[in-house]
């Protein structure tokens, strides 16, 4: 990695802040949101099972309805869109699709593909749902962070929100019980700066052994 690339990444990370005031007249196109998500889903996941799903809410009336589900948070309505990030509790249902795709792309031979399919089915299919939920939640956190950084690199702002009625959300958007709403991510153009925050000093949270 070149020095300039590393500096650019560091700059994006440090400039990203949670913005809650958005320009309600600013629109991000669906195409650009798709481009952000296309890059974001390169995130790592357990056994590459990619247990994330997205619902993008950009219709103004629907955002108003969502605001009531999301504790009346203003940014739900004023941002360009809200990306709902869902976790797939039955990610093992993706196993064959994932590894067959790798095989067809030439990334593994057929024997290796079958071995990975069999091993993953055996492992994930036997796990208690609570453990699968923890795995899926962890992985959706990884993809969400990438969305936020990619958005910032394009000049947009975001704020993740965990405070919403998940059951009402599932009913409103007809989400299958297979999926678990993890967070809502507002994305748009800031109308006011984010609140400045500090971080715990590194020396207080790192230990080398």
TrEMBL record:
Source organism superkingdom: Bacteria
Gene3D superfamilies registered for this protein in UniProt: NADH Oxidase
Regions that span the bilayer: none
Lineage: Bacteria, Bacillati, Bacillota, Bacilli, Bacillales
Native organism: Mesobacillus campisalis
Domain Nitroreductase residue range list: 13-189
GO molecular function list: oxidoreductase activity
CDD domains, alphabetized: MhqN-like (cd02137)
Keywords from the named record: Oxidoreductase
Family statement: Belongs to the nitroreductase family.
Pfam families: Nitroreductase
InterPro entries membership: Nitroreductase (IPR029479), Nitroreductase-like (IPR000415)
Protein name: NAD(P)H nitroreductase
């Amino acid at each position: 990695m070149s020095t300039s690339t590393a500096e650019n990444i560091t700059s994006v990370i440090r400039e990203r802040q949670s913005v809650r005031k958005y320009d309600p007249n600013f629109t991000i196109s669906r195409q650009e949101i798709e481009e952000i998500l296309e890059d974001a889903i390169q995130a790592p996941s357990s056994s590459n099972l990619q247990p994330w799903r997205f619902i993008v809410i950009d219709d103004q009336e629907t955002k108003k309805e969502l605001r009531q589900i999301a504790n009346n948070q203003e940014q739900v309505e004023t941002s360009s869109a809200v990306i709902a990030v869902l976790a797939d509790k039955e990610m093992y249902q993706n196993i064959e699709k994932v590894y067959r795709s790798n095989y067809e792309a030439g990334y593994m031979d057929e024997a290796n593909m079958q071995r990975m399919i069999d091993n993953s089915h055996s492992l994930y299919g036997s796990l208690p749902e609570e453990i699968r939920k923890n795995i899926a939640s962890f992985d959706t956190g990884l993809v969400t962070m990438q969305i936020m950084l990619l958005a910032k690199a394009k000049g947009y702002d975001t704020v993740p929100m965990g405070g919403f009625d998940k059951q009402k959300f599932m009913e409103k958007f007809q989400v299958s019980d297979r999926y678990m709403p993890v967070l809502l991510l507002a994305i748009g153009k800031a109308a006011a700066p984010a609140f400045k925050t500090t971080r715990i000093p590194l020396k207080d949270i790192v230990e080398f052994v």
